[in-house]
Every structure is written in structure tokens, then in C-alpha cells.
Specification:
With about 130 residues, the chain is mostly helical. The protein is built from 4 helices and no strands.
């Protein structure tokens, strides 16, 4: 059984919301291109975290966590386009955007901390 981390749990909950957003965009708004993009990037955040948690090394974990960070940034971009294109309301945007920003900050912190840890090991002999 997977030991769930806070970032994994938040990413999974966010992915569920993004899938529901994709369904709404397809069924109610008849929008297919942006919906496909945001579902792909928004669900990839958690998928890459799950893969990172199964990584064989800290370097592997860092690589997958960084991919999650980048996917989160892309998802923020798609949310902005959906709001500016008037496919989602300000309230829908604010809620999803707040969650995406929180994930982005968490992933930034995780990748920065691990990168510093790995770099310090490279500079310190016999670690």
C-alpha cells in the first residue's frame, strides 16, 4: 500500500476536480481542445508524484517531482486561458487556481530542498 504524502493527496484531489472540469467543458460548454489540454496536464501532476514516490533514487524522485512542478505551471496557464476565454466563471477559476498555486508552491519547495540536499552531497566528500 502506498504511503500517501500531503502533496500526493492534494494532487489526487486536484486531479479529480480537473477531470470534472473537463467533463463540464466537454458536455456543457462544447469545448474540446482546451479541456483535453487541462485534463492532461492537471492529472499529470499527481501521476508524476505517484511515479516519484516509486523512484529508485533521490535523483529519480527529484526528476519526477520537477516534472510535476512543470505540469502544474502548465495547468495554471490553461486555467487562465479558460477564465479569459469565458469558459469558466471567476469563482470556478479562483477555487481551482488557488489549489494549483498551492500545489505549485509545495512542489517548488520539495524540488528546491531535494536539489540543495543532492548538491551539498556532491560538494561534501565521503557522504
Amino acid at each position: 500500500m502506498r504511503r500517501e504524502s500531503v502533496v500526493y493527496s492534494k494532487a489526487k484531489s486536484f486531479a479529480v476536480r480537473i477531470v470534472k472540469l473537463g467533463r463540464y467543458l466537454n458536455e456543457d460548454m462544447k469545448e474540446y481542445i482546451l479541456s483535453r489540454q487541462i485534463v492532461r496536464s492537471g492529472t499529470s501532476i499527481g501521476a508524476n508524484i505517484a511515479e516519484a514516490m516509486c523512484g529508485c533514487s533521490e535523483k529519480d524522485f527529484l526528476n519526477k517531482a520537477y516534472i510535476s512542478f512543470k505540469e502544474c505551471g502548465e495547468t495554471i496557464y490553461w486555467l487562465e486561458l479558460l477564465k479569459e476565454g469565458e469558459y469558466i466563471s471567476r469563482d470556478q477559476f479562483d477555487s481551482l487556481h488557488a489549489d494549483a498555486i498551492e500545489l505549485h508552491k509545495m512542489l517548488s519547495s520539495i524540488t528546491k530542498t531535494l536539489r540543495e540536499k543532492l548538491n551539498s552531497r556532491l560538494l561534501t566528500p565521503n557522504s
